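Following up on my earlier message about deoxyuridine-5'-triphosphate. Here are the inputs again, as you asked, copied directly from the submission form:
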Amino acid sequence: MTSELINVSITRLSHSEGLPLPSYATQGAAGFDFLAAVQETICIQPGERVLVPTGLCIALPPGYELQIRPRSGLALKHGITLPNTPGTIDEDYRGELKIIVMNAGNEEFCIERGTRIAQGVLAPVVRLQWHEVANLDETARGKGGFGSTGQ
Ligand SMILES: O=c1ccn([C@H]2C[C@H](O)[C@@H](COP(=O)(O)OP(=O)(O)OP(=O)(O)O)O2)c(=O)[nH]1
Ligand SMILES: [Mg+2]
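Thanks, got it. Here's what our run produced:
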């Protein structure tokens, strides 16, 4: 990938010792894979969700967020998803990164230590400032939405 690399400070908690840092699986991958820093294998029953530790804390540079997204292979093969996707890591968060993993499949799914459970994508943030007005400008769409343009 030709995009610039942004430095992000990272610290480890004791339960991630021995695991490699999250990394990009291919040269052009947009997301790096988070490894589950579980001490023992945890199994999620269909419909259940668990909070998976990463054992990592980071300090994002100002103006960035980290999005935590599901992995499509786990979603397709096992129905593993993240109910809050994309999870938002704020630039001022210094706690442990954790991943809310849900089993939307039909069978038990087990997460072993080091399972690549989700991916992180660094993204720039644009913040707004409200400008309260009496009326909004008119558009062709107007208030039409929720299927107003047809199938
Ligand atoms: O999948 C996630 C989502 C969030 N976080 C952490 C980092 C984030 O900066 C913080 C707060 O997340 P969010 O704003 O989504 O949750 P909230 O329910 O609004 O909590 P808060 O009141 O702490 O902002 O929790 C995670 O570790 N994993
Ligand atoms: Mg919040």
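One observation from looking it over: The chain has one domain: 9-124. Hope that helps, and feel free to reply on this thread.
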